[in-house]
Amino acid sequence: xxxxxxxxxxxxxxxxxxxxxxxxxxxxxxxxxxxxxxxxxxxxxxxxxxxxxxxxxxxxxxxxxxxxxxxxxxxxxxxxxxxxxxxxxxxxxxxxxxxxxxxxxxxxxxxxxxxxxxxxxxxxxxxxxxxxxxxxxxxxxxxxxxxxxxxxxxxxxxxxxxxxxxxxxxxxxxxxxxxxxxxxxxxxxxxxxxxxxxxxxxxxxxxxxxxxxxxxxxxxxxxxxxxxxxxxxxxxxxxxxxxxxxxxxxxxxxxxxxxxxxxxxxxxxxxxxxxxxxxxxxxxxxxxxxxxxxxxxxxxxxxxxxxxxxxxxxxxxxxxx
Length: 321
Ligand code: SF4
Known about the structure:
With 321 residues, the protein is an alpha/beta fold. The protein has a single domain (6-89, 170-319), classed as P-loop containing nucleotide triphosphate hydrolases (Rossmann fold). It is 30% helix and 23% strand. It has 11 helices and 12 strands. The chain has helices at 53-60, 84-87, 97-100, 107-117, 124-137, 154-166, 184-201, 212-215, 236-241, 246-253, 260-265; strands at residues 6-18, 24-37, 42-46, 68-73, 76-77, 90-93, 172-176, 204-209, 221-226, 229-235, 306-309, 312-314. The radius of gyration is 21 Å and the shape is globular. It starts with 5 loop residues before the first strand and ends in a 7-residue tail after the last strand.
């Protein structure tokens, strides 16, 4: 197997919160996530809102500084270095294209800005040609360069965001829920386009989604996060065929299926209990307050993310010897 493009060791991200009487407490957004992403692969990352997946994506890019742990890019520790040279190689596509594009800049200026920052065009003509080529790559044309973001639909705005990310010829892109703000009919166009780009340019993606069905087809492997922890990580097909973690099973049961007979016969589990406050992470397994299979020691000891089957890692005491 190739060396990882991105490797995370012990990454944590806590956000300080000042309470009314002055005490500072911390939201534990990401807790020690061990993860590697390989060149040219798509790693899907799923979990409900607030589980830490977006924070993790932004921490990898150092848009948020990690509270602990190390981030490696191609084997180099980039946790504390000046990120400017690495920004070229590591980009992000945001969830809401309308708020991620500067409304006062034309599309040409938006796509041209990273080209200028990184000095990628020697002449004005080369810059113009680069912008035209990027717009063509995402299905727009050079006339669009003179228009403003509000003149475009949501799908077209996301295409502009993708052109901006591609402008610096990255090797890795965090796709932070890139289709969840779009109509269903447009979602597959954007996902197909991202897949085509990956095939052409050899990009690696961290594809973040709260809807597990969105990442299924695009991802080679999928990680599941709960309350800041990575609780399961395996191949996309394996996760759907053989989910192990009780939380992953709950997520999959929540995915609607188009067949009413199958829907009726499907087992559904109703979770009872409280989701812990992320400022008061309970000891032991983070899911023990809701888990239908919790045992006595689940509330005491945190399970390791361990290999339960070849290529299938899960953090659950049900699978430890
Ligand atoms: Fe449930 Fe225990 Fe497994 Fe946590 S470790 S998911 S509480 S069985």
